Design the sequence.
């Protein structure tokens, strides 16, 4: 903005006040980044590009980068823990700022500008003239970073630098609040599943709170796990279990299911049925997931030959019915899971799969809604149920 004398001013107190009030008009992290940059621009800061780097607590993702650029939407990228190390990552400007906690400025077009980081040369080639890298210090002492760049000839003025510095601390508070909520969501999604996590965040945390829902129920179990545990080291068995569950969990999620519990080498999942008209579709998705899982597990010997493990064998039962889905536990330690006769029957069916030397079996209720062809295996007495249960299997087994 320009005052009555024609000189440029950059009063960012309004931006700081907006941030200190919680940036309520920008509920999502990318919205907070975009609106902060736009408000700074309206205050007289000639920003060209801003990159905000925030580390996160996630089993696969080390951190996220939010990039705002004039005329573009905010882009979001992630860094994974297994990303290959490169020269740029080993000699990173962002890592330097995060480890030192000290701001860094580089006037890129000046002949005496120190170009110790590869990113600086990239910015210069793209037309940037000045960069201010500021640490974003969270209340727990954790340090993240923001890079503020301009294409203004001659770079930022001292007043513009002061204007950016004035909003860094309140911007860090907003970034921390948004990051904490995302961390909570990530952890809940990781440990209890997205459907359950949404309920917990919505306040459904009272013991005994539950609801009856219809679902296709999945219960799988590895064969001979106890015997294997006696032969191999705990670390080997943990690696085996992780590979085994990798054959199931992504497939379940991709087909609309929710993983509820890991019970040693067993897995309980459900495929919720929101509308009775979707029953056949949900059953088909659950069976498709089971068939894909079977193929993945059968291919596991290629992964475990180096550890001299025998081929992995497992059984999987699919049932359809009503379950009670909610909080169960004692004291302040609760579990969000599903219980009921339908879950018990799925567990019994999985034992029948073992007896019949089959991998996948289903109940009659599930088979009656499944459009795929299933074979009638006959009736079986099931412990805890008064009448024999008709069991179905895949023709190719």
Sequence:
């Amino acid at each position: 903005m320009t005052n009555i004398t024609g000189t440029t001013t950059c009063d960012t107190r309004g931006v700081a006040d907006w941030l200190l009030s919680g940036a309520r008009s920008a509920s999502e992290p990318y919205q907070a980044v975009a609106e902060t940059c736009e408000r700074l621009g309206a205050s007289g800061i000639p920003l060209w590009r801003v990159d905000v780097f925030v580390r996160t607590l996630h089993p696969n993702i080390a951190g996220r980068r939010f990039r705002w650029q004039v005329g573009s939407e905010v882009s979001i990228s992630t860094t994974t823990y297994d990303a290959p190390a490169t020269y740029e990552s080993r000699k990173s400007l962002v890592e330097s700022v995060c480890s030192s906690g000290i701001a860094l400025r580089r006037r890129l077009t000046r002949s005496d500008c120190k170009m110790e980081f590869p990113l600086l040369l990239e910015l210069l080639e793209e037309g940037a003239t000045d960069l201010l890298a500021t640490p974003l210090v969270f209340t727990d002492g954790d340090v993240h970073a923001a890079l503020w760049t301009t294409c203004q000839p001659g770079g930022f003025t001292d007043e513009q630098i002061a204007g950016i510095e004035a909003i860094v601390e309140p911007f860090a508070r907003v970034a921390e609040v948004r990051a904490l909520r995302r961390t909570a969501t990530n952890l809940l999604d990781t440990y209890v599943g997205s459907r359950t996590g949404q309920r917990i965040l919505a306040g459904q945390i009272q013991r005994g709170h539950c609801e009856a829902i219809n679902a296709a129920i999945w219960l799988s179990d590895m064969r001979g796990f106890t015997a294997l545990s006696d032969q191999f080291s705990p670390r080997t068995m943990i690696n085996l279990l992780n590979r085994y569950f990798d054959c199931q969990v992504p497939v379940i999620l991709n087909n609309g299911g929710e993983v509820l519990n890991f019970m040693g080498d067993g897995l309980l999942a459900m495929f919720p049925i929101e509308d009775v008209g979707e029953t056949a579709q949900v059953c088909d998705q659950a069976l498709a997931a089971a068939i894909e899982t079977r193929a993945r597990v059968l291919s596991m010997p290629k992964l475990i030959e180096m550890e001299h493990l025998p081929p992995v064998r497992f059984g999987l039962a699919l049932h359809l019915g009503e379950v009670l889905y909610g909080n169960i536990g004692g004291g302040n330690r609760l579990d969000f899971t599903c219980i009921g006769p339908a879950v018990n029957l799925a567990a019994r069916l999985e034992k029948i799969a073992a007896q019949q030397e089959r991998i996948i079996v289903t109940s009659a209720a599930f088979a009656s809604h499944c459009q795929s062809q299933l074979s009638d295996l006959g009736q079986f007495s099931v412990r805890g149920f008064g009448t024999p249960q008709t069991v179905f299997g895949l023709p190719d087994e």
Remarks:
- The chain is about 40% helix and 25% strand.
- Confidence is low (pLDDT under 50) at residues 1-7.
